Amino acid sequence: MTYPTDPLHQCQQRRVSQRIRHSDLTELRAQLHAASAASGLDEALTTDRHRLFPPTATLETFVSQVLDADGSCQQAVNRFMLHRARPGSVRTGAYCRARQRLPGAVVADLAQYLGRTLSKEAPSRWTWQGRPIKLIDGTTVSMPDTPENQQQFPQQAGQAPGLGFPVARLVAIMDLSSGAILNAAMGPVKGKGTGEHALLRGMLDTFESGDIVIADRYFPSYALIAELASRGVDVVMRQHFARKTDFQAGTPLGKKDHIATWQKPKARHAWMSQEAFDALPDSLPVRELAVGGMVLVTTLCSAKQAPRQRLQALYKDRWQIELSFRDIKTTLGMEVLRCKTPAMVEKEVWVYLLAYNLVRRVMAISSEWADCLPHQVSFKHSVQVFRQIASRSPLTAVEYQRVMEQMTTLRVGQRPDRLEPRAIKRRPRPHRLLQMPRHEAREQIRQYGHPKKRK
User: Could you tell me if 407 and 381 are in contact, meaning their C-beta atoms sit under 8 angstroms apart?
Assistant: First the structure.
């Protein structure tokens, strides 16, 4: 593969090469100190400096663990001992205790710090008319069936006790330009204050004036749009299914395109304080337009500055956060967590997001070097290359250039409006489903033996 050799591109490559040398896992120590605002970091570095697994080494090992195809603690300890000057025991006890001591706030702050850094370093050509785009969406993750996890993250209500797994809801805010996760919140899937709106309300400070927020039809509530508008943030969302759109009313901007006036709800939500409800404006001008078989809601009310075709294309970019969730859950393996206590589960999620942002950082550097967009580069291929960087770092300048070329060679195919059935062709193995708690099933096997196989 060849790249342009004009002076502008050569200057760009020199600028990027200054950042390339710090793209491996060895930069974690410097990034940890850069995130010194996290509570307990300095104290942890002081009190644990003589341990086999000090905080920095523990975090580096934890990140390498979630990046590895074999994400077991034993594999992580084996790798750590092989790279250690004085090899020690390969038993996992010391490492597991070190993970428990690792301050969870430090991991979360570091992941958010990397996300903010990637967002700020993104070139303006990656933005939309010079404005950053932030995406919102939610997903769920499963975890081991332990009493502690069940108490904090109960299983689905339709499952009998002992037959399900604890499930947690995760809402994330992603920067479209770099693909980095800027913030995330985690909670149970049922109960008061556990919905995606409730989790999002605790992260509103992530948005800055000038941002554009894209979200699906679950999010366009009056209170959220008004709160974001007061912060100087515009939205592009799909109309909520419960709200009726009358294109005959309001100020027309084109065919099925108008500015409607939303009225403040008469009653406040149970989660909202009276002061917050009184602070809401009495009305809100919102643009509603029909494109691509759906109705979009946006506060970008100028048809000249935001034509409907561009808004439609902008909303299609919302799918990138769905792909990022797939990258984190399927490619990295966060769909089923391993930790057995709620505190470790939340810490594990943040380590996954930290590892994801580290890969996205390398992808952003390589994309800038190759003059392409980060979402055009294959994430799975980048993870494969990143694993090689982590195991061989530090690399020489020639090796880094080869890595950049290799990472940007495989591009993601452009498949607009792709339509696929939500079904799988390969049938699962015909195992019986567990219909009772495992200890009861063991007792029945002791008494009556294994049931006959299905024909």
Answer: yes
Tell me how crowded residue 434 is: count the other CB atoms within 10 A of its CB. Answer: 12
DSSP structure string for 221-274: -HHHHHHHHHTT-EEEEEPPTTS---TTSSEEEETTEEEEEEEPPSS--TTS-H
354 Rama class: left (phi>0) / alpha (psi -120 to 50) / beta: alpha
Assigned token pair, 71: 């994400």
**What is the pLDDT at residue 154?**
93
What SS3 state is found at 339? Answer: coil
Confidence grade of residue 340 (pLDDT, cut at 50, 70, 90): very high
What's CA 262's distance to the chain center, in Å? 32
What DSSP string runs through 44-102? HHHHTTTSSS-HHHHHHHHHHHHHSSS--HHHHHHHHHHTSSS-----SHHHHHHHHHS
What is d(CA 59, CA 76) in angstroms, rounded to the nearest whole number?
Answer: 11
Contact yes or no for 218/195 (Cβ under 8 A): no
Q: Contact 110/182 with Cβ under 8 angstroms?
A: no
Q: What percentage of the chain reaches a pLDDT higher than 70?
A: 87
- Report the alpha-carbon distance of residue 165 to residue 142 in Å, rounded: 7
**Strand (E) or helix (H) holding 112:** helix 104-121
Q: Is 154 helix (H, G, I), strand (E, B) or coil?
A: coil
| Assigned token pair, 324 | 């990022």
Residue 315: alpha-carbon gap to chain centroid: 18
Digit-coded pLDDT (tens) for 144-193:
999 999 999 999 888 888 888 999 999 999 999 999 999 999 999 987 77
The DSSP 8-state label assigned to residue 326 in this structure reads H
Tokens of 125: 């050509």
DSSP 32-49: HHHTTTSTTHHHHHHHTT
